[in-house]
Amino acid sequence: MKIISVVGARPNFMKIAPFVRAVERHNASAAADGGPRLEHRLVHTGQHYDERMSRAFFDALDIPRPDTDLDIGSGSHAEQVGQTMMAFEKVIRQSPPDWVVVVGDVNATCACSITAKKEGVRVAHIEAGLRSRDMTMPEEINRLVTDRLADLLFTPDELSGANLRAEGVPEERIRFVGNIMIDTLEIHRAQAEALSVDSIIANNRLEGGTEQRAPVRLDPSQPFALLTLHRPSNVDRRETLEPLVRLFVDEIASRTPLVWTIHPRARKQLEEFGLWDDLLSCPRIVLLEPLGYPETLKLNMEAAVVLTDSGGMQEECCVLGTPCLTLRWNTERPITLREHGGVSVLVGNDPGHIRSAFNEAMAWGRQPVRPPLWDGRTADRIAEALAREK
Ligand code: UD1
């Protein structure tokens, strides 16, 4: 059976790495018992291309170099989706696979699902069924389109399966396999534990440590908070971003040192709105370049509280037990919320909400939670399910 799997942007890499390993394991046992092989090719659309947003993850997660790189780069959504479709169509026509495997909800996921279906190739979606019900979110559109087209839908939790059933997806297409991100977390847990927070900070200061005017050293005996921010709904408008920056600089950082790993989109907007210098000169905010996977995991393991608008970090907080303030008004991952037994609360981007939730969350303490099948073995279940298909 021939499979092409697709990655495009940073959150995809943590999801494809264990899948590639599971295909290798499947082929090793197929070789031993004479079973059918999975012939696998990896395509990178190139939506993320910076060393720190892409290549570093291939190295750290031991993902083989892509067989094909489409080099799409940045652009508007229509440009990214359109160019990915045109380039991916050629890849499929050159050597049609039996299946295209897509992960997550980025533009590559949607573009390659549409292209594959139009070329008569079956689509499998890893991380199917997540719904924020927020149609202003580009990822929600990507999720809806991908799941409507997919022939096999691998869900991370029972709530996602219920979403798909409510939308009329036939039962035989839905496979509850667990959360593949947690496979990656468990593979890298020991490596992350062995890292030192001080070295992570020293090695990842913005532009080699020359830029920030007031370098901050974290006192190992004092708690710190970890912040990530990149959603258009949080960073693209000055009216939203400015009050958030004021809250971080004037209030949160004065209570607890704040380690902020800066996404390229957020940095661009902070500079455009003239907020960058305020951050650089705040003595209790540690600004870091986008971090590698084990480094982010280590900071998450040590942080007293995580503030984030990343879906993946919400899930990692759940398994590591770190109190998590989700800087969004909705989530496609309700299983991570405290009301569903998780560790996260939705605080949106209103400073008042964030302030009071932050004060509460500092007292919650670490409470790891492991939803069903978030056991580190999701990728094997997926590879075996695919191998059973004709
Ligand atoms: C994308 C995904 C989002 C995911 C996020 C993780 C979609 C719709 N969005 O958002 O779901 O959570 O990745 O990072 O697919 N840039 C660089 N270097 C890069 C890539 C981007 O500097 O390697 C800058 C460019 O200025 C670009 C901007 O970041 O215009 C935004 O990148 P883009 O890929 O369009 O979206 P993300 O915000 O990263």
Give the SSE map.
Blueprint: E1 2-7, H1 10-33, E2 39-44, H2 51-60, E3 68-69, H3 77-94, E4 99-103, H4 107-118, E5 122-126, H5 138-149, E6 152-155, H6 158-166, E7 174-176, H7 180-193, H8 197-204, E8 225-229, H9 232-235, H10 238-255, E9 258-262, H11 264-272, H12 276-280, E10 285-288, H13 293-302, E11 305-308, H14 311-320, E12 324-326, E13 344-346, H15 351-361, H16 378-388
Parallel strand pairs: 1-2, 1-4, 2-3, 4-5, 5-6, 6-7, 8-9, 8-11, 9-10, 11-12, 12-13
Helix pairs in contact: 1-2, 1-7, 1-16, 3-4, 4-5, 7-13
Bound molecules: uridine-diphosphate-N-acetylglucosamine.
Count the E strands: 13
Low-confidence stretches: none
Q: Rg from C-alpha positions?
A: 21 Å
Order of helices and strands: EHEHEHEHEHEHEHHEHHEHHEHEHEEHH
- Strand percentage, roughly? 5-15%
Report the span from N to C terminus. 8 Å
Overall average pLDDT: 95
The small molecules bound here are: uridine-diphosphate-N-acetylglucosamine
- Shape call: globular
Report on this structure.
The protein is α/β, with parallel strands linked by helices and 390 residues long. Helices cover 47% and strands 14% of the residues. The protein has 16 helices and 13 strands. The protein has helices at 10-33, 51-60, 77-94, 107-118, 138-149, 158-166, 180-193, 197-204, 232-235, 238-255, 264-272, 276-280, 293-302, 311-320, 351-361, 378-388, and strands at residues 2-7, 39-44, 68-69, 99-103, 122-126, 152-155, 174-176, 225-229, 258-262, 285-288, 305-308, 324-326, 344-346. The strands form 2 sheets. The protein has a 7-stranded parallel sheet, sandwiched between helices. A 6-stranded parallel sheet has the order 10-9-8-11-12-13, sandwiched between helices. Strand 4 (99-103), helix 4 (107-118) and strand 5 form a beta-alpha-beta unit. Helix 4 (107-118) runs parallel beside helix 5. The longest helix is centred in the first third of the chain and has 24 residues, at 10-33. The N and C termini lie close together (8 Å). 48% of the residues are buried. The model has no long low-confidence stretch (mean pLDDT 95). The site of uridine-diphosphate-N-acetylglucosamine has 19 residues, from helix 1, helix 5 and helix 11.
